[in-house]
Amino acid sequence: MKAIERRQELLNTLCRRRHDKIDNLAFEFCVSERTIRRDIQELSLSYPIYTDSRRNSAGVHIEEGYYLNKQYLKPEQKAFLETIANRLRGEEREKMQEIIDRFGRPDTRA
């Protein structure tokens, strides 16, 4: 797998999982931890990815609310807009609900 392919798959993986440990990613992609760190450094120039080395094993995180090719509202933003929507009436309420539906994160509860 070429570096660009690995980085794209790494980005997809982080978007699905939201966070992971560098050693786990290195094992999964069959590369060294140093390679994963370089990949993360490169990806972080274009995507909201950051590392956290305060824990026992360094972690990689993607910003809450960011999903590849789509930005969603954070839960507190969605709740705020829902509070406002409840105060609106008629067409204004419908328009606000359309905004919430379009940019609110899909409910993943099953």
Topology:
Elements (H helix, E strand, L loop, with lengths): L2 H15 L1 E3 H8 L3 H11 L5 E4 L6 E4 L3 E2 L2 E2 L3 H13 L2 H14 L7
Antiparallel strand pairs: 1-3, 2-3, 4-5
Helix pairs in contact: 2-3, 4-5
Task: Determine the N-to-C terminus distance.
Answer: 35 Å
**Average pLDDT, to the nearest integer?**
87
Task: Estimate the global geometry from the Cα principal axes.
Answer: elongated
The strand order across the widest sheet is 1-3-2
In the predicted model, the low-confidence regions spanning at least 5 consecutive residues are none
SSE order in H/E notation?
HEHHEEEEHH
| Whole-angstrom Rg | 18 Å
CATH superfamily of the largest domain: Winged helix-like DNA-binding domain superfamily/Winged helix DNA-binding domain
* Number of self-contained structural domains: 2
- Estimate the strand proportion: 5-15%
Count of individual helical segments: 5
**For the record, what CATH class of the largest domain applies?**
Mainly Alpha
Helical amount among residues, as a percent range?
55-70%
Describe the main β-sheet briefly: 3 strands, antiparallel
Total number of beta strands = 5
CATH topology of the largest domain: Arc Repressor Mutant, subunit A
Structural class label = alpha+beta
Architecture per CATH nomenclature, i.e. the level-2 architecture of the largest domain: Orthogonal Bundle
Task: Characterize the structure shown.
The protein folds into two domains: 3-64, Orthogonal Bundle (Arc Repressor Mutant, subunit A), CATH 1.10.10.10; 72-103, no CATH class. The protein contains five helices and five strands, in the order H-E-H-H-E-E-E-E-H-H. The chain has helices at 3-17, 22-29, 33-43, 75-87, 90-103, and strands spanning 19-21, 49-52, 59-62, 66-67, 70-71. It is elongated, with a radius of gyration of 18 Å. 10% of the residues are buried. The mean pLDDT is 87.
